[in-house]
Amino acid sequence: MSFLTACKQSSALLRNTGAPSIACLARSLSTEAPKTATETPAKASDTGDLTVQPTRDVLVADVISGAPNELRHRAVRIYQPTRNTMQSGSGKSERWRIDWDILPGAGRWENPLMGYASSADYVQGTRITFRSKEDAIHFAEKQGWDYYVQQQTVKRIPPKNYAENYVYKPHTLRIMRTK
Amino acid sequence: MTTIPARLAKATRTSLGSQESKRRVLSLYREWYRSAPEICALYALSESPAQVRHAIRARFERNRNVTDQRAIDVLLIKSHQDFQETMNCWKQTDHVLGILLEPQDRPQKTFLQKFYEGRDEEAVIPAASGIH
Q1: In Å, how far is B2's CA from the nearest CA of chain A?
Q2: Is residue B2 part of a domain?
Q3: Domain count, chain B
Q4: Which residues form a coiled coil (chain B) (predicted)?
Q5: In b/e form, how buried is each residue of A16-34, taking b as 16+ CB within 10 angstroms?
Q6: Residue of B71, B74, B119 with shortest CB distance to A107
Q7: Backbone angles phi, psi at A129, to 5 degrees
Q8: Which CATH number fits domain A74-152: 3.30.230, 1.10.1060, 3.30.160, 3.55.50?
Q9: pLDDT tens sequence across B87-117
Q10: What residue of B is the nearest CA neighbor of A119?
Q11: Domain ranges for chain A
Q12: Chain A within 8 Å of B108 (Cβ-Cβ)?
């Protein structure tokens, strides 16, 4: 019990410092909802290095969701999927996804008769789609999952016009752009 | 045996403060505790009421450190639904034996035990029920 109170005290201490990464760590130790749920604007500290993130009121859903506790030991990836290369359209690439990384060599085996790949990883085929990055982060925080946000790739759309095919460019290989 | 659907039904509501939620949790625990002999008689269990009470106590102890008010409310609702279903005999005997009385915590394994099995990560334990 003394260990629990020590954890709670340390988490309360960490929450007061307000560093976002540490606050994420402190949340796993204590399920207590923050007292100040008001959205205070982010202000820069004296050094200018750290910005104080406002504490948000996040419901602790992992005790009531019924999800297995083992999910807390795994980090989830929040990312924006790339365009399907088999299609020219860029549909569904504006969404954000949560998925779990493949565990290295654990919980998987090969069927001795047929060679089918089997897995005990119950989330290997699971992915969750969100409209925005903030939604995904909120969901991961609510569930108590460690997460990291993968940087979204900058889409480069090259300018194209028909006349460019006939522009004289010395010392360069001419590429006829047909599409 | 006819069952009255509204028997032991309670309206869902939110607690006003931590004191009230504590009081509600304690009263729900007392309801469970007092109905242990009735559960044994109702489902013709071979377990004694003391064992049932032990399992009930373990369920409440699992969520002892939850301090989020909304989470406590949801846990109260769920537990009371469970209580109503148990006492109205809406469950089968196996539900009571497997879900209510079965210990839900996985057995603790030492590092060496996990190492010999080849999986020393907590994350890879399968979550399917009944697999330890």
Answers
A1: 32
A2: no
A3: 1
A4: none
A5: eebeeeebeebbebbbbbb
A6: B119
A7: -110, 140
A8: 3.30.160
A9: 999 999 988 988 778 777 767 778 888 777 7
A10: B126
A11: 74-152
A12: no
Q: How confident is the model at residue A129 (pLDDT cuts 50, 70, 90)?
A: very high
pTM above 0.80, yes or no: no
Q: Do A63 and B69 touch (CB under 8 A)?
A: no
Residue B89 inside a domain? The answer is yes
Which of A1, A63, A143 to probe by mutation at the B interface, max B CB count within 10 Å?
Answer: A63
Token reading at B65: 């450190």
3-state SS of chain B is CCCCCCCCCCCCCCCCCHHHHHHHHHHHHHHHHHCHHHHHHHHCCCCCHHHHHHHHHHHHHHCCCCCCHHHHHHHHHHHHHHHHHHHCCCCCHHHHHHHHCCCCCCCCCCHHHHHHHCCCCHHHCCCCCCCC
3-state secondary structure of A43: strand
The B residues from 38 to 77 touching A (CB cutoff 8 Å) are 63, 65-71, 74-75
pLDDT band at A48 (very low <50, low <70, confident <90, very high): low
For residue B70, list chain A residues with Cβ-Cβ distance below 8 A.
33, 59
Task: State which residue of chain B sits closest to A108, comparing Cα positions.
Answer: B124
